[in-house]
Amino acid sequence: MAFQAGGQRPEPRPVPEDAEAQVYLQDYAALVEAVPHPSFVVDQHWDVAAANDAFRTLFRKVGPHPTAMPADNFLRFVLFHPDASLVLDEHESGWCLPMLAHFRTLLERHPHDCELQAIRRDIAQDPLMEAAYRQGLPHWIRAVGEQAVEQDGAVRPLFHPDPRRGATECRIVDETSPMLKQLGWTRLTLILREPRRPIPPPHRRARRPAGHLSVVPAPGA
């Protein structure tokens, strides 16, 4: 079905037509690959244009999904992949709500963007996520402050698959160069910190079910 949560993406990701821009992105991808921390480049839809080995390692235990793989579209991964909470600790408050708020701002700026509209329809398919989007976000932003929505500088919790790291944190750093910004792309790097605590046993970190948000009660509850 085309527009159920995590449904079909309407168009393949864009590729710059300008030859010089293509070469620049190829060279920039080599720079991203050389970074020891998870690093990736996204367009305004959060389609991933480049990601390094540390990024792939971080999400190596994520199961397959037709439209929400982390190296495909990171926004869709955070919102729709049932394994997202296995890597993104405190998934709802630490990752999902900030990304929903960021997405809402994007949609306000680009109301006729087809791919953003497709994500909006997918959100509407999950009653709890839809309630969070419509009613929960203003309350949450008032409670935590506008700075909690910002990507650059945010410190967010992770479960790293490497047991030497386990439950840790990362600081999100925006490393977008002027030319990359001009091309409409953003580079983010997750600066990994020292482990916070021993990693929980696997049985305590189950895949999240559909209708996963709890900040806003289900309609009629």
SS-based class: alpha+beta
User: In total, how many beta strands?
Assistant: 5
CATH architecture: 2-Layer Sandwich
Average pLDDT rating: 83
Query: Mind telling me the C-alpha Rg?
Result: 17 Å
How many strands, which pairing sense, and closed or not: the largest β-sheet?
Answer: 5 strands, antiparallel
Number of helices: 8
- Tally of domains: 1
Beta-strand proportion:
5-15%
Q: What's the multimeric state?
A: single chain
Strand order in the largest sheet: 2-1-5-4-3
The global form is globular
Measured between the Cα atoms of the first and last residue, the distance is: 28 Å
| Low-pLDDT runs | 1-13, 216-221
Element string (H = helix, E = strand): HEEHHHHHHEEHE
Please report the first level of CATH classification, the CATH class: Alpha Beta
- Helical content band: 25-40%
What would the CATH topology be?
Beta-Lactamase
Keywords:
alpha+beta, globular, 221 residues, 5-stranded antiparallel sheet, disordered C terminus
Summarize the structure in words.
The protein has a single domain (37-63, 71-204), classed as 2-Layer Sandwich (Beta-Lactamase). A hairpin with a 5-residue loop joins β1 (39-42) and β2. It has helices at residues 19-33, 53-58, 74-80, 84-87, 91-109, 114-124, 127-144, 178-182, and strands at 39-42, 48-51, 155-159, 167-174, 186-192. The two termini are 28 Å apart. The model is unreliable at 1-13 and 216-221 (pLDDT under 50). It has a 5-stranded antiparallel β-sheet with strand order 2-1-5-4-3. By secondary structure, it is α+β, with helices and mostly antiparallel strands.
